[in-house]
Amino acid sequence: MLLSGQNAVVTGCLRGIGKKTLEVFAEQGANVWACAQQVDEEFEKFCAELAQRTGTWIKPIYFDLTDTDAIKAGLKAIMSDKQPIDVLVNVAGFTKDAIFHMTSMEQLKLVFEVNYFSQILISQYITKLMVRKKRGSVINIASISGLDGSRGQLAYSSSKAALIGATRTMSRELAQQGVRVNAIAPGVIDTDMNAVVPENVIAGHIKDMSIQRMGSSSEVANAILFLASDLSGYMTGQIFRVDGGMK
Amino acid sequence: MESKLKSIFAESLGIDESIVTDSLRYAEIPQWDSVAHMALVAAIEEGFDIMIDTEDVIDMNSFEKAKQIVAKCL
């Protein structure tokens, strides 16, 4: 198993890529603090069953990414467990789509709060623990829209571009302290976030791919697993496209 | 607390304890640069079993200030 005995923090675990990452990590032997926005009974049950099936521990942690005090309280709860943290995956994110001239400052700030500022805050706290152990891997979930731009997604694409910039800077600062930082840039993935995108828009994207279908959460989670594990021990500061070969 | 903090400063920055006084300030000696600062913060957190807020990491610009921050966290 690739993450046997390791401890990971994963945000955005309630659904989609985060939930699949939680599952893949546990199946590979990792214990996980599974962070989500709100208490959810079904999610608690999912975590308990997954832990039992894989012989790991999984602790649900709840905080709202727009609430700095709540984030800090969540992180303090994680740290109070006094366990080393080997992996951090910043998955949580959301979008408020609008074209450039129709994007309000309020929308822009909200998207940046969740997709960028909160990720930085979480990374600052968790990597301090990693630095103590001189070991760790951080994986930020960006987006191909942060690399290529995306019509109608000013707030989302620019927040992801900011996260990509942070990934590269963090990787340069933290490498000498044993911490690697990489990002995944998923393309069109079959998640709830894309469920609201009109079919003709999805079809248009698929036409532009070498592999002409939507990606699955599993395919993204497997790429995250690779970056979390020692298999990628000589890689840092990289942005990996998982997009079916989008042109 | 002060003597323990002094010892953490000396060990983490690789300096003699006699230099660690209230007037010791960030970046005034070559050993206390930005990289050493993060290692120092990590050592203080581990030594006292506390979590220092990012705002305090930035504010911790002297030994005197460090004493106040640690006292607040205990």
Q: Outline of this structure?
A:
The complex is a heterodimer of chains A (247) and B (74). In chain A, 48% of the residues lie in helices and 15% in strands.
Q: What do these coordinates show?
A:
The complex is a heterodimer of chains A (247) and B (74). Chain A has a seven-stranded parallel beta sheet, sandwiched between helices. In chain A, α1 crosses α9 and α3 packs parallel to α4. Chain A has a single domain, classed as 3-Layer(aba) Sandwich (Rossmann fold). In chain A, β2, α2 and β3 form a beta-alpha-beta unit. By secondary structure, chain A is of the alpha/beta class. Chain A contains nine helices and seven strands; from the N terminus they run βαβαβαβαβααβαααβ. Chain A is globular and about 45 Å long. With 74 residues, chain B is an all-alpha fold. Chain B has one domain: Orthogonal Bundle (Non-ribosomal Peptide Synthetase Peptidyl Carrier Protein, Chain A). Chain B has four helices and no strands. Chain B is globular and about 25 Å long. The termini of chain B are close together. The model of chain B has no long low-confidence stretch (mean pLDDT 93). Chains A and B meet through α3 and α4 of A and α2 of B.
Topology:
The complex is a heterodimer of chains A (247) and B (74).
Chain A: E1 7-10, H1 16-27, E2 31-36, H2 41-54, E3 58-62, H3 68-79, E4 87-90, H4 105-133, E5 136-141, H5 144-148, H6 154-174, E6 179-186, H7 192-195, H8 199-207, H9 217-228, E7 239-242
Parallel strand pairs in A: 1-2, 1-4, 2-3, 4-5, 5-6, 6-7
Helix pairs in contact in A: 1-9, 3-4, 4-6
Chain B: H1 2-13, H2 34-48, H3 54-59, H4 63-73
Helix pairs in contact in B: 1-2
